[in-house]
Design brief:
Strand 10 and strand 11 form a beta hairpin. The chain has two domains: about 5-185, Bira Bifunctional Protein, Domain 2 (BirA Bifunctional Protein, domain 2); about 195-230, SH3 type barrels, CATH 2.30.30. It is about 20% helix and about 30% strand. The radius of gyration is 17 Å and the shape is globular. The chain contains four helices and twelve strands. The protein binds biotin (BTN).
Length: about 230
């Protein structure tokens, strides 16, 4: 069961550093504030204290599964949880963002540690507009800015862990094929003109290996990793 045992601290550098490598699968670390929160591609993840869900989960996927796919699995679980928590429609922006109306509300960071995966999830829950980082791409949102009211962070975490438990179990068994239809339905990039991992084209979906598919002027391309820039 994902979510047990749980360590909670009022403040830490990053929850990514709190889990012992020999902790049982499903163990989580949470905090109310990070002083050195980590984002993808060496970026920082910033939040005002006591506004967010900040969690890291220790997972040991079977060797036949590709750990980077976990970012998409966790993003789907987060999207489902946000929809359960509030009257919103959440989409997934490859490879690791959760969006509400084209604004980023959550990000996922999967890091390999001694053969395990530390899956970090940050959800903006109760930030006001003024507390969100300005001038980010995509622009930031919180559940509060999207719905006009505050939400119980512990409840959002509980829903998120339940959804992650379900999504992780399906992925362990069947890989991304288990969530192919939902990924397509929630794909924020499909049909958009993008530059992904340095390749320009129109996004046409996500394959069963978690790659972003592009239609380029010279044919099909599948991008494994990297940053996505939206054109126009
Ligand atoms: C991203 O969008 O770049 C990924 C952000 C991941 C942030 C979460 S918050 C909990 C965990 N601890 C961290 O330091 N980072 C992840």
């Amino acid at each position: 069961m994902i979510g047990r045992p749980r360590i909670h601290v009022a403040e830490c550098d990053s929850t990514q550093l709190l889990l012992a490598p020999d902790a049982p699968e499903g163990a989580i670390a949470t905090t109310d504030h990070q002083t050195a929160g980590r984002g993808r591609l060496g970026r920082r993840w910033l939040e005002a204290p006591s506004t967010s869900v900040l969690a890291s989960v220790l997972l040991r996927p079977p060797p036949e599964r590709r750990a980077p796919e976990l970012s998409l699995v966790a993003a789907l679980a987060t999207a489902r949880a946000l929809e359960e928590a509030a009257d919103v429609r959440a989409s997934v922006k490859w490879p690791n963002d959760v969006l509400l109306e084209a604004r980023k509300v959550a990000g996922i960071l999967a890091e390999l540690r001694s053969g395990a995966v530390v899956l970090g999830i940050g959800v903006n829950v109760n930030q006001t507009c003024a507390q969100l980082p300005a001038e980010t791409t995509p622009p930031a949102a919180s559940l509060r800015t999207a719905t006009g009211r505050e939400h119980d962070r512990e409840h959002v975490l509980e829903l998120l862990l339940e959804q992650l438990d379900v999504a992780y179990a399906s992925w362990r068994e069947l890989g991304l094929a288990a969530v192919r239809a939902e990924l397509a339905e929630r794909d924020a990039l499909r049909g958009r003109r993008v530059v992904a991992g340095g390749t320009a084209g129109v996004a046409s979906g996500i394959d069963d290996w978690g790659r972003l598919l592009l239609e380029t002027p010279t044919g099909h391309a599948a991008v494994e990793s990297g940053e996505v820039l939206l054109e126009e």
